[in-house]
Amino acid sequence: MYKGQSGMWSWLLHRITGLGTLLFLFVHIVDISLLGFGPRVYNDGILLFDSVIVRLLSLALIGAILLHSTNGVRIMLIDFWSKGVRYQQVMFGIALAITIIVFIPAVYFVLAPKLLAPLAAWFVQPLFAHAGH
């Protein structure tokens, strides 16, 4: 038993992120199948993806894919590099760091359209309210 060391967390997170990505693929198949019901049904279905909740789920997917891929590279290095086992804990930290560093800009690009537009409108509205006086 790993007793909570990085190998156990790496194994667990790799399985969870893999299952999350698989779940997304099923959702993606369903959303693409809406095309068979016509453009209006498809467009109405796609509007759901613009909600804040779905944007947060998209962020979870981005994080899952980032962690799964960086950890996958780590696993390959452990398997094919003679010193990989010795550095597996350091490589897990590097995989987490890369995931976080790439994830932070993704948060901005995914959430900015929903959060910054209302905020900008709130600040700009008083400026134009007095323009007619």
Summarize the structure.
The protein has helices at 6-33, 39-47, 52-80, 88-129. It has 133 residues and is mainly α. The protein has a single domain (6-113), classed as Fumarate reductase/succinate dehydrogenase, transmembrane subunit (3 helical TM bundles of succinate and fumarate reductases, Up-down Bundle).
Structure description:
- The chain is mostly helical and 133 residues long.
- The chain has one domain: Fumarate reductase/succinate dehydrogenase, transmembrane subunit (3 helical TM bundles of succinate and fumarate reductases, Up-down Bundle), CATH 1.20.1300.10.
- Helix content is 81%, strand content 0%.
- The protein has four helices and no strands.
Number of strands: 0
Shape descriptor: flat
Return the CATH architecture: Up-down Bundle
Oligomer: single chain
Secondary-structure element order, N to C: HHHH
**Structure class:** mainly alpha
Helix content: over 70%
Distance between the termini: 74 Å
Number of helices: 4
Radius of gyration: 21 Å
- Any low-confidence stretches, pLDDT <50, length ≥5? none
Largest sheet geometry: none
> Mean of residue pLDDT?
87
Domain count, please report it: 1
CATH topology: 3 helical TM bundles of succinate and fumarate reductases
Q: What is the CATH class name?
A: Mainly Alpha
Strand fraction equals under 5%
**CATH H-tier superfamily:** Fumarate reductase/succinate dehydrogenase, transmembrane subunit
